[in-house]
Amino acid sequence: MRYWLPVNASDQQVPFRRTVVSYVQRGERMTVGQQRAWDQYWPDLGTEVNALPPGPLDTTTWFGRSAPVVLEIGSGMGETTAQLAAAAPEVNYLAIEVYKPGLAQLMLRAEKLELTNLRLLRGDAIVLLRDHVEPGTLSEVRVYFPDPWPKKRHHKRRLVQKSSVELIASRLAPGGVLHLATDWENYAEQMLEICQAQPLLRNRFEAEPGGWAPRPDWRPVTKFENRAHEEGRVVHDLIFERV
What we know:
Layout: E1 2-6, E2 13-17, H1 32-45, E3 46-48, H2 59-63, E4 69-73, H3 79-87, E5 92-97, H4 100-113, E6 118-122, H5 125-132, E7 138-144, H6 162-171, E8 172-182, H7 185-196, E9 201-203, H8 223-230, E10 236-242
Parallel strand pairs: 3-6, 4-5, 4-7, 5-6, 7-8
Antiparallel strand pairs: 1-2, 8-10, 9-10
Helix pairs in contact: 1-4, 3-4
């Protein structure tokens, strides 16, 4: 199937063939609490990407206000996402994930924290960005600890590729931020190389050793990060800005 990928915020387009996705479908069995959260909150807080009407997602209506939009790709079980949304009530926080129990768990966390600035999407982030996000409208895109697909033959399944970064960059507003984090060395190097080569992006920390960003104090420590430290892997953050 052939898609069209904008190369910048203008109307210029180039053909883009997407043949693999970066995720795998997992089981959907939920705990009693997760099922309750899904039944109670999903109709208001969540939607399936493939159920969205054609055209841009109307975040102003969905959130009930106009505010900067932050998109987190791959929210997992939602521990980090809930804390980040709670720490920034002034933004409209969108989280997209394919794992249904993870989204349900995130809604449980949102309930506990009484969050009002969080909305959830289930499905393919590339489809969301390509078909339902207007160019130049996101204030930030966050991708924390995406599946590293460590085997070389699977690297093509990694989320951070030239085409995906090109798409993300086109959707960021001028001055908007792409923030990446990973504990896999060769994936970090791949991310850095791809982002450095994207003309719409500038490394905010290019003067730092290696071009890596200092670890932000406000990014919560995840179980993946703790595991990385236990196993002797270094966590790299990358923060790029839309020019």
